[in-house]
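Q: Here's a chain of 104 amino acids. Please give me its 3D structure as tokens.
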Amino acid sequence: MSKLEERTKYSADSVVAKEPAVIYTLKRLNDGLTHTGYTVQYVEWNEDATAKESYDNIQVGRSLILDPRFNYTWLTTTITEIVEQREGYIKFTTTNSTYELIIT
């Protein structure tokens, strides 16, 4: 094998997109609006309504952000109550809506 062939040889694993390990489905119960994503974080806010910190765990006073990046998929208002939480499922209310988050 020539040096050029060695430098341009790729493993199929490095060029083929892999399925994400986890899929998050966020459903707003008020109207049935549903969004899916591959990452969820929870944002804590400063007094001036700017983001203070993001976390991996849900807590009252934070907002859920689905697929956080430059163009996020969805951002909820502040979580006011965690109604139910079990493996693969969280039901919570925010300032103006009720949501279900299903983790598969």
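Q: Can you summarize the key feature?
A: The helical segments are 3-8, 12-15.
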